[in-house]
Design a protein that fits this description.
With about 160 residues, the chain is mainly β. About 10% of the residues lie in helices and about 30% in strands. A hairpin with a 2-residue loop joins strand 4 and strand 5.
Length: about 160
């Protein structure tokens, strides 16, 4: 029954985007261009690309949304910075070197750090890219949902 109500609400009350303009995050670098897109795994622990990749060039990376630094450091051979936003989402940047410490509050648009490849054992799948992922309590989400760049699917007859 809920599926029918949801379907009818989409038909009779369509929206132009998945999120309102107020919810759209700021891009983390000027000329933000996604190099590798999110690819959901078929199985819970299957292969996929649980985020997006972008090249910052020489630009510092800025916070797409306000929050609190929940992790800043190295995991195995990767420099990672994670922001926890007000709704509990975790926004992680991989291969980002930062001076920010856990517990620091960041504002939307505030500088976070710069791209770094300081670990010689890390093999990049996108040269010079930063991997950005978004996690909720339910798992990974497509970051494009938050940048307003994901277009709804269209059923063609």
């Amino acid at each position: 029954m809920l599926k029918i109500i949801a379907f009818l609400s989409i038909i009779f009350f369509p929206t132009t985007s998945a999120q309102s303009t107020a919810d759209i995050w700021a891009v983390p670098v000027p000329n933000f261009n996604i190099k590798s897109q999110y690819v959901a795994p078929v199985k819970a622990h299957g292969s996929g690309h649980r985020g997006i990749d972008f090249k910052p060039g020489q630009n510092p990376v800025t916070a797409p949304t306000a929050g609190t630094i929940s992790f800043s450091g190295t995991v195995v051979n990767r420099s990672i910075l994670t922001i926890k936003d007000g709704s509990g989402l975790l926004v992680s940047f991989e291969q980002l070197c930062s001076d920010l410490e856990v517990g620091a509050e960041v504002e939307r648009g505030q500088g976070l750090g710069v791209y770094c490849s300081s670990h010689k054992t890390f093999v990049e799948h996108c040269s010079g890219c930063i991997h950005l992922s978004v996690r909720s309590s339910q798992g990974y989400l497509n970051p494009e949902l938050f940048f307003g760049s994901l277009q709804p699917s269209v059923l063609k007859a």
